[in-house]
UniProtKB/TrEMBL annotation:
Residues 1-22 form the signal peptide. This is Cytochrome c domain-containing protein. Gene3D superfamilies: Cytochrome c-like domain (1.10.760.10). It comes from Bdellovibrio bacteriovorus. PROSITE patterns: CYTC, PROKAR_LIPOPROTEIN. The keyword Metal-binding applies. Keywords: Heme, Iron, Metal-binding, Signal. Residues 99-188 form the Cytochrome c domain. GO terms for molecular function: electron transfer activity; heme binding; metal ion binding. Coiled coil: none annotated. InterPro entries: Cyt_c-like_dom, Cyt_c-like_dom_sf.
Length: 192
């Protein structure tokens, strides 16, 4: 009799184990039980939305003071074009490999050609919709003036802007700006 009870207990334990293990597997489209609200899917708030939980009711958060994004390097030259011209050295100087020129061309044509022209001709010669409406025409990047600039000066102008041209630091990632400089040098050689 005792062996029958032990057998029944063993069978019951095995049945419960199988039931417990089978409940852990995938169950089709049935979602898991959500014990703590918003843990499985956090509520998304767009930057422009009102957020009752933020200090000023704005969905846009200001980063904490004295913090920087991972990999961010602050631009140490600020508005000092002379220091940038002397201090910045092009790590890709003279390199005209296809991948460097094509990456520079991509960013130039996306961000610069709208005003300076696809061949860097600038002004009226650029024949772009944007530059034709500008009172002060953008200069040619293939001009003798720009050819006389150091690569650091050109990099600085792309990063911080100059005159009526705003900064393009947020448009052209830091790691691709030297490739844009090399592409402009490539355009200068083509313009001869």
């Amino acid at each position: 009799m005792r062996s029958i009870v032990n057998l029944q207990i063993t069978m019951l334990a095995a049945g419960l184990s199988i039931l417990a293990l089978s409940s852990c597997g995938p169950r089709g489209n049935n979602p898991n039980v959500e014990i703590i609200q918003d843990m499985m899917e956090s509520p998304a708030i767009k930057a422009q939305e009102y957020d009752e939980n933020s200090p000023h009711g704005s969905g846009m958060r200001v980063p904490p003071e004295h913090t920087a994004p991972v990999g961010f390097e602050p631009y140490k030259y600020g508005n000092d074009v002379e220091a940038a011209s002397k201090g910045l050295k092009n790590p890709l100087a003279g390199q005209t490999e296809d991948d460097i020129i094509l990456t520079g061309q991509k960013y130039y044509e996306t961000n610069c050609a709208v005003c300076h022209g696809f061949k860097g001709e600038g002004g009226e010669a650029a024949k772009s919709v944007v530059s034709s409406k500008m009172a002060l025409k953008p200069p040619a990047v293939v001009s003798d003036k720009v050819k006389g600039w150091t690569d650091g000066h050109l990099y600085h102008v792309i990063t911080m802007g100059q005159g009526v041209m705003g900064p393009y630091a947020s448009h052209v990632p830091q790691k691709y700006r030297w490739q844009v400089v090399n592409y402009i040098r490539f355009l200068e050689k083509q313009a001869k």
